[in-house]
Amino acid sequence: MYKYNFVYELKVLVRNGWIQLLSLLLLGLFCFAAFNGNQKVEKRKLDIQAAKDEVRESDQDMLMLLDSIEKGMEVSASRWTIPSSPTAVGNYHPRVAAMSPKPLAFMATGQSDLFTHYVKPTMTGDDFTLNFTEITNPVQQLFGSFDLSFVIVYLLPLIIIAFSYNVLSAERESGSLKLLASQPISLRKWVFQKISLRFFWVALLTGVILILTVMFFGNRTNLKDLFSVLGIAIAYMLFWFTLAFLVNLRTGSSSKNAIVLLGLWVVFVLLVPSVLNQLGSTLYPMPSRTLMINEMRILKAETVKRQDEILDNFLRDHPEYAINDPNQSRKFYHRYVAAQKLVKEELEPVVNKFEEQLQKQQAWISQLRWISPAIVTQQSLSANAGTSTADYESYRGQVIEFAELWRAHLVPFLYNNQSFTSGDYADLPAFVYQPLESKDNSLSWLILMMISIALGAIVVGLRPRSKSSTSIVT
Description:
Layout: H1 2-15, H2 18-70, H3 86-92, E1 97-98, E2 118-119, H4 148-164, H5 169-174, H6 187-217, H7 223-248, H8 254-283, H9 289-305, H10 307-317, H11 326-329, H12 332-368, H13 373-385, H14 389-415, H15 442-462
Helix pairs in contact: 1-6, 2-4, 2-6, 3-14, 4-7, 4-8, 4-13, 6-7, 7-13, 7-15, 8-12, 9-12, 10-12, 13-15
């Protein structure tokens, strides 16, 4: 009976065109989404390469000017841009701190459309302002770019609903359900077989198309990442087919089943993420940026008035930077760099407050993300693509560290009144982005929990509640 049921169901799906339509629909959605995501990644690579080419050309001009200066020749350049000055090198010839995309970056846009992927930290730039740049959690992007993550999280459940909402009700409404009463199979097992066959075909088609898409668009993708994405998609599909199985067991009308399943889609995909984000913003509100910017301006204005005093204190704390003739050799940047360091220290408590509130909001989302499989799936795909919150926080931290390293390398030249030469060029620091290696196993556990809950619900659904439910007719 089981074999006959599978064969019959397969023939029905093929004859009514469901398999063909599903194949074309999934292929079209996945290919277009992957192409769209790949276009964004290519633009990102081109922007980074253009910035690096610009720095390379600037370095060539700098070396030519240094060579002319060292040979005693006159140069036609503004005095404040002559590269023999360390501040000119630090401000006009910065390095590119770029965040290179991962092989699967085309799958999930995540936060890549909100934040830049390269920065040029300067010697006198306010790099500390990067600390309070808010990184929005991906679940706040209810409607993001049309990428594979969007197709899997938002559209794939709708396809599953359309494919399985009337498994039982259609048979009842057509009158064919009574013809199966003579067969020795329970109603629940019969519905389970039909749902299982649909899950098999959707999972098979999705898996094959996803593998082909990743192989075509994802350069240097390893098998571990590929199977991870495939496992996430299958677990998410299992959850929605489980819901369809349980709703079908209510033996309601087709319209009622469709309304219930669409309502569940709205709850898990739209409502729960929105409520969690709103509660996070309410419980842990971000401080006013306007007030912080005003405080920053006031503090800078005050430091301008007492730059000489600040410089004296700075040189007292750093005797290695002491100037032999401070009264005659003090220049603008001597005072500015010392004042900037003081501003950074004074603003650190305000910046930390922003950081703490942002981390509390993200912790709130992380603790309750298990409520919605859509959140778990989206964050898992973003983590594999390298566009998650953690990836951008890691990049931001690396940029801030490099900005401090860049400044620390050139400050001794400034305070020791030492000229920058072509021989010092090779020692300039270079930024090397270190991709984040995810050590958070919570997403894996949440996916396993999602699978366990789905399997548990299936077991409960297969258990008959009364004698009448053991036959095909109820």
